[in-house]
Amino acid sequence: MVYQFLSCMCCLALAGCATYRPLPLEPVPEPPGHPAQIQVDTRSLPFPVLAAHRFDPRDGLDEIEVATLAVVNNPDLKLARDDLAVSRAQAFAAGLLPDPQLALAGDLSNSGGGTRAFSFGLNYDVGALINHAAGRRAAQADVQKTDLALLWQEWQVASQARLAFVRLTHGRRLLAVLDANRALFADRATRTEQAQQRGLLTSDAVLPNLTALQDIDKQIHDLQRQLSQTAHDLNTLLGLDARFDLRLQDGTPPAFADEGAADGALTDLPRRRPDLRALVAGYTAQDQRYRAALLAQFPSLNVGLTRSRDNSNVYSNSLGITLSLPLLNRNRGNIAIEQATRQKLHDEYQVRVQAARNEIRAVLDQQRLDRAQLERIDTALARLEPAIQRSELAARAGLIDALAYANARAALLAKQAEQITLQQQIAEQRVALQTLLGIVPDASSTEHPQP
Questions:
Q1: Beta bridge pairs of residue 349
Q2: Which residues lie below 8 Å from residue 242, measured CB to CB, with a gap of 6+?
Q3: CB within 8 A of 441, min separation 6: which ones?
Q4: For 378-389, what is each residue's pLDDT tens digit?
Q5: What's the order of all strands across the beta sheet hosting 101-106?
Q6: At what angle are helices 127-197 and 402-437 packed, to 10 degrees?
Q7: How open is the CA angle 356-359-361, to the nearest 5 degrees?
Q8: Cβ of 35: how many Cβ atoms within 10 Å?
């Protein structure tokens, strides 16, 4: 009977066992060289706005499409999703009840004449059930924390891709202005050198133009190197081949964020930002671990039933109870650790919320300064552009010399470069503000962004 029972238990145990499945390491393929080679299922994206935006790389990528591709194909996000799968598996493991223990013993002596003795017993750790509920709730909160951390990482990756998009589009626009400025200074340098050779000018008149030309050449070189690095970083962020020349749509200059809407969104910031919600989930998990540590200070109980037979063929049944005595340890060390860890997470949440509020207010203050500066630049350009047109007509008619017109033209180009640089700062502030507020941009954010 004992052997039949043992065989039955072994069959039941083997029936529920997992089997090994190999997962060999295969040669790593090259990353795709073009976004069109990537299958993008926007319906699976975590942000409704990205899911609703049409992804079509054939006409170039706009800002939302760049963010979409980053969320779908970023290599770091793939690893983060694997971490979420691990966290869910750990939660599944924490939700399983402990297995009972089977003890078997048989008399192997060969004294002869007597009946062979045996015993078998079934034990169960009842104390493990006391901590099971708290451990399962802690694991579930950990899954929520990991899920929200992944959402925040996706948010950050989308924000980084949008910032790279802003820097590339505005940088290329600025490069066009610098090229025009360089052509102007190169023409001035050539004309003054020719005038010097004819004895009409001295070297003092030629040197400033050559210096200005060298300075603009340095600016162009620095900007080209910066754009090349930004394009490389964006390709890496999007999971594309670093050598690919990504085609981007140059959007219209962004509008300023609505400060009233930003103040309204600031009030419920902890309920919107994924990273702050992840801190809440982490605090909840730690609170459950603290509860489990408190429950572990009570005596642990192990109950077992035993069926035995001695060598005189006498059967007996017994009940065994094992109870720990919490006299010395009482789990006080683990209780102190879990309590201190909970206090740390409590303080970290307070600090992070206040830091987020300060960062948002700093961006809003910077926006006010940039708004005033942009208004001054727009006013200056509104005056310069008609004046330059009149100067060009006067220069063609010979009413003013070429140097005066070149100086006016250089002033206009410098002001245009200043305008593009400031517009880039405004666009970066818009992306940063939407990220800090925990708000996903709408489909028209490149034209009329609202935080």
A1: none
A2: 232, 235, 236
A3: 49, 63, 64, 67, 162, 431, 434, 449
A4: 999 999 888 888
A5: 101-106, 118-125, 301-309, 315-323
A6: 180
A7: 110
A8: 25
| pLDDT value, residue 3 | 53
What's the rounded mean pLDDT across residues 233-259? 79
Integer distance in angstroms from the first to the last C-alpha of the chain? 74
Alpha-carbon distance of 319 to 22, in angstroms, equals: 45
> How distant, in Å, are the alpha carbons of 29, 66, 79, 124 from that of 41?
21, 14, 19, 49
Q: Are 257 and 451 in contact (CB under 8 A)?
A: yes
| Encoded amino acid at 107, one letter | D
Cα–Cα distance measured from residue 270 to residue 372, given in angstroms and rounded to the nearest whole number: 31
Average of per-residue pLDDT across 179-199:
85
Q: How many residues in the chain?
A: 451
26 token code pair: 């295969």
What fold, for 62-109+116-437? Outer membrane efflux proteins (OEP) (1.20.1600)
**CA pair distance 60, 58, nearest whole angstrom:** 6
Cβ atoms of 308 and 117 within 8 Å: the answer is yes
Contact assessment for residue 185 and residue 209, using Cβ atoms and an 8 Å cutoff: yes
**What does the block give as tokens for 56?**
């079509």
- The span from the CA of 210 to the CA of 216, in Å, is 10
- The predicted pLDDT at position 444 comes to 41
pTM score over 0.85: no
